[in-house]
C-alpha cells in the first residue's frame, strides 16, 4: 500500500461518496473505485458498505480511518520538519561573542522572532577561544570585536566599526565636572596613566590592544599597562576601583557603572573598533546562512548613538 492509497481512502471516508471524493482528489471516479477495491483486497477487509447514494464506513473502516489519519499526520509533520530545516527555519545554532555590543542582542532578538523554531545558545569568550572552538565545531558563528587576522577554516565578515572612548574613574582630574562629558581628550593627556587592557593575562596582546599601543606611541608615549583582564565588565569595574583607565568601544558607554565616566578621544581616527562576524568556511548549515543574512541586514540599519552615554 502506498501513501496515495491512504489519501484515497480518507477522501472517500470523509466525503461518503466516490464521485465527490474523486473530484476532491482531481481524478476520475472509476480509477478511484478500483483503488478502493484494491485496498480492501490487500487488507482482506471490507472498509465501505455501498449504498444507493454513496458509501459508509464499516466498523473496520472506522478503525482504519483513525490510524490512517494519524499516519498521514506524522508523515506531513516529518515532511514539514524537513522542509523547514532545509530552509533554515528549524534546527540549532550556537553563537559566540566577545563583546555584548548593542548590535548583538538586537540580532539575537530579531532572529528568535523570525525563526522561533531554531534553538539558539550563546557563549561569551575571548576572540582566540571562539575561533578555536569554531575550528573544532563547538560553536557555529561568533561576533568578534576588534581586528581579526586570517584563521584557517574561518571566514570573517565585517559588520560595522565604531570609535573608541576612554573610561575614567569618576574622581579623576580629567573627569571633573568642569570637563563636561562631551569634552574630548587627547591621547597625549593620558601619557601618565595606568592602562587596564583587554586580553588573556598570560597570552599575547590582542590586536585591538596593539592598536591602542600603536596610537599611544604615535602620540609620543608608551602606555603603562597595569591589569590585563579577559572581559570588558571587569575592566570597567577596575576603573571604578581607581586602578587605572581603559580605552573601550563607544557602545560600552551604555554600561552604567557607578564610579566610571567616559570621555571622547580627539584626533584618534585610527582607533576604530570593528565588529566582525566569524563563521566556518564552507558551512552548509541553512540555519547559519539565515543567521548571517539577518545579522548583515541588521548591521546595515544599525547606528551607534554616542549621545546616550551615561
Task: Please tell me about this protein's structure.
- With 310 residues, the chain is of the alpha/beta class.
- The protein folds into two domains: 3-86, Orthogonal Bundle (Arc Repressor Mutant, subunit A), CATH 1.10.10.10; 91-304, D-Maltodextrin-Binding Protein, domain 2, CATH 3.40.190.
- It has nine helices and twelve strands.
- The chain has helices spanning 3-15, 18-25, 29-43, 59-86, 103-114, 127-135, 207-218, 232-240, 286-300, and strands at 48-51, 54-57, 91-97, 118-124, 141-145, 154-169, 184-186, 194-198, 224-229, 246-249, 260-266, 272-280.
- Strands 3, 4, 5, 6, 7, 10, 11 and 12 form an eight-stranded mixed β-sheet that branches. A two-stranded antiparallel sheet has the order 1-2.
Secondary structure blueprint with pairings:
Elements (H helix, E strand, L loop, with lengths): L2 H13 L2 H8 L3 H15 L4 E4 L2 E4 L1 H28 L4 E7 L5 H12 L3 E7 L2 H9 L5 E5 L8 E16 L14 E3 L7 E5 L8 H12 L5 E6 L2 H9 L5 E4 L10 E7 L5 E9 L5 H15 L10
Parallel strand pairs: 3-4, 3-5, 7-11, 8-9
Antiparallel strand pairs: 1-2, 5-12, 6-10, 6-11, 6-12
Brief account:
By secondary structure, the chain is α/β, with parallel strands linked by helices. The protein folds into two domains: 3-86, Winged helix-like DNA-binding domain superfamily/Winged helix DNA-binding domain (Arc Repressor Mutant, subunit A, Orthogonal Bundle), CATH 1.10.10; 91-304, D-Maltodextrin-Binding Protein, domain 2, CATH 3.40.190.
Amino acid at each position: 500500500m502506498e501513501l496515495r492509497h491512504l489519501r484515497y481512502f480518507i477522501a472517500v471516508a470523509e466525503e461518503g461518496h466516490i464521485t465527490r471524493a474523486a473530484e476532491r482528489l482531481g481524478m476520475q471516479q472509476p480509477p478511484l473505485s478500483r483503488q478502493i477495491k484494491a485496498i480492501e483486497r490487500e487488507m482482506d477487509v471490507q472498509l465501505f458498505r455501498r449504498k444507493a447514494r454513496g458509501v459508509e464506513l464499516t466498523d473496520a473502516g472506522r478503525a482504519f480511518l483513525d490510524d490512517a489519519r494519524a499516519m498521514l499526520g506524522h508523515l506531513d509533520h516529518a515532511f514539514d520538519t524537513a522542509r523547514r530545516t532545509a530552509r533554515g527555519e528549524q534546527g540549532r545554532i550556537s553563537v559566540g561573542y566577545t563583546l555584548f555590543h548593542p548590535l548583538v542582542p538586537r540580532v539575537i532578538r530579531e532572529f528568535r522572532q523570525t525563526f522561533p523554531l531554531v534553538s539558539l545558545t550563546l557563549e561569551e569568550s575571548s576572540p582566540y577561544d571562539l575561533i578555536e572552538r569554531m575550528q573544532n565545531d563547538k560553536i557555529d558563528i561568533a561576533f568578534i570585536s576588534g581586528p581579526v587576522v586570517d584563521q584557517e577554516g574561518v571566514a570573517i565578515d565585517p559588520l560595522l566599526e565604531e570609535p573608541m572612548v576612554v573610561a575614567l574613574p569618576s574622581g579623576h582630574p580629567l573627569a571633573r565636572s568642569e570637563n563636561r562629558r562631551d569634552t574630548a581628550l587627547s591621547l597625549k593627556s593620558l601619557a601618565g596613566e595606568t592602562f587596564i587592557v583587554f586580553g588573556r593575562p598570560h597570552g599575547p596582546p590582542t590586536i585591538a590592544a596593539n592598536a591602542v599601543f600603536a596610537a599611544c606611541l604615535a602620540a609620543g608615549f608608551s602606555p603603562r599597562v597595569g591589569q590585563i583582564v579577559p572581559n570588558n565588565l571587569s575592566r570597567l569595574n577596575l576603573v571604578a576601583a581607581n586602578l587605572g583607565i581603559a580605552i573601550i568601544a563607544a557602545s560600552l558607554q551604555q554600561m552604567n557603572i557607578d564610579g566610571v565616566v567616559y570621555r571622547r578621544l580627539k584626533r584618534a581616527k585610527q582607533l576604530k573598533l570593528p565588529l566582525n562576524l566569524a563563521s566556518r568556511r564552507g558551512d552548509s548549515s541553512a540555519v547559519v546562512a539565515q543567521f548571517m543574512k539577518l545579522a548583515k541586514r541588521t548591521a546595515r540599519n544599525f547606528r551607534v548613538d554616542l549621545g546616550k552615554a551615561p
